[in-house]
Description:
Elements: H1 3-8, E1 10-17, H2 23-34, H3 58-63, E2 71-76, E3 79-85, H4 94-101, E4 105-111, H5 118-130, E5 134-139, H6 148-159, E6 162-165, E7 167-170, E8 178-181, E9 186-190, E10 203-207, H7 212-217, H8 219-235, H9 241-245, E11 249-254, H10 263-273, E12 280-282, E13 285-287, E14 295-303, E15 312-320, E16 322-324, E17 329-331, E18 336-338, E19 341-347, E20 350-353, E21 356-358, E22 362-367, E23 376-378, E24 396-402, H11 408-421, E25 425-429, E26 437-441, H12 445-458, E27 462-466, E28 471-475, E29 492-496, E30 501-505, H13 508-517, E31 523-524
Parallel strand pairs: 1-3, 1-4, 4-5, 5-11, 6-11
Antiparallel strand pairs: 2-3, 7-8, 8-9, 9-10, 12-13, 14-15, 14-23, 15-22, 16-21, 17-18, 17-23, 19-20, 19-22, 24-26, 24-27, 25-26, 25-29, 28-30, 28-31, 29-30
The structure holds guanosine-5',3'-tetraphosphate.
Guanosine-5',3'-tetraphosphate binds next to helix 2.
Amino acid sequence: xxxxxxxxxxxxxxxxxxxxxxxxxxxxxxxxxxxxxxxxxxxxxxxxxxxxxxxxxxxxxxxxxxxxxxxxxxxxxxxxxxxxxxxxxxxxxxxxxxxxxxxxxxxxxxxxxxxxxxxxxxxxxxxxxxxxxxxxxxxxxxxxxxxxxxxxxxxxxxxxxxxxxxxxxxxxxxxxxxxxxxxxxxxxxxxxxxxxxxxxxxxxxxxxxxxxxxxxxxxxxxxxxxxxxxxxxxxxxxxxxxxxxxxxxxxxxxxxxxxxxxxxxxxxxxxxxxxxxxxxxxxxxxxxxxxxxxxxxxxxxxxxxxxxxxxxxxxxxxxxxxxxxxxxxxxxxxxxxxxxxxxxxxxxxxxxxxxxxxxxxxxxxxxxxxxxxxxxxxxxxxxxxxxxxxxxxxxxxxxxxxxxxxxxxxxxxxxxxxxxxxxxxxxxxxxxxxxxxxxxxxxxxxxxxxxxxxxxxxxxxxxxxxxxxxxxxxxxxxxxxxxxxxxxxxxxxxxxxxxxxxxxxxxxxxxxxxxxxxxxxxxxxxxxx
Length: 529
Ligand code: G4P
């Protein structure tokens, strides 16, 4: 198969959801279809499942969760699929956001009984910033669900994206009869199946014109269905793929991941509607994934817990061409030519060393400490730099107190390295030097990682003193003089490692008041490096 065919069959996406909406269950069903795993229950990083053992960090083992997001590759129906896993639960971190920078589209899983939840909103914002297509899977229809129109309304109002249902549910919970495909007018019937993760649920189909349809769903649901359908035809958006590709319209599917109902239909439609790897912006313009030679950017760096070596794994998303492990590549930010060391790929639970990979794929390479988040790797004959990865706003802040002051040097080098790796963000008092260090994180687990790693890798004991701030904003117009900031009582002025000024706020109300009282001040939530 040529490079073009290899790249064109690739689909690289992330699944986003609020914890417990069913992201893992859906991923697992996708893997079952792809034949990448044989049993359900193999993906989850939960304490009691097979995948709980991770060789990356002690902390992962102790807690039975996966600190880092992984990438799963499998083949299905002629496609080569890369699912970028975005950690949720307690292990939600800046890595979760960064992973979205490596995806070409996103699948948003929503719990039908809950609607749009907090974490979905945060992840969604990043997808919107990138204008990537977003596909919605409304899950758990086998449980009592909110009204379907209300769910769509919720998505449109809360997330500000238009929706277009591709299929429509008939009932929910005990009364869940199935989903109606708006295109074929065929209803796939839901028959309660055992929840063991069997490959295909017992499923039959009926056309809405068939006489038995009414009998199957019952008079009440039949009438409701017809009313809803009329409303739907009148009110819902056309399925305009242009708008889908721009991230302005989300195709919506209803189903139940646990009972494997509606999953394969969703996967098939989704794969057909999404595109192969997209061109990316660089300082030499858009880089075409097929026409250009190998290039990639680093979106995540994962520390190795071997104390003897502070080596790490840098995860790169290949953006163009074919990666050939025998050839030299050029690290733009380091201005160096070398061969990538021990390139590896993850396939379900296995890690394997690879010789080649293509645009759309993610590879992990051994990193002796040279890479930073956002770095570009390309061919020595064809040099350019990809647009950097933004820094995402941390939501939790602590003052770091070093307990053993004799180890100042190790301490400074430790926090600096961890910040470079992207494990934490560090800030200083606006007017002081390195004297007071404030650390900011997206997920609180990152605090534990910081403490653990400073102790274990750098021999520095620290105490973390929580600060009451939850919001941070970069100053968009640096000419604004922060010394003249008005109504600044509950606001902390800090600067980041690049000396950019920032403000820490306790709540959103403070941000509003601050903006109202300081004419000319402009704030921003993401910062492009
Ligand atoms: P997450 O990765 O988004 O956090 O969610 P996950 O797939 O782990 O699912 C969260 C819980 O919801 C799990 O139950 C899972 O079995 C259940 N679930 C997922 N999809 C469906 C669905 O379509 N219908 C129903 N009824 N339940 C669903 P749990 O009891 O928390 O975990 P487990 O012990 O079953 O693993």
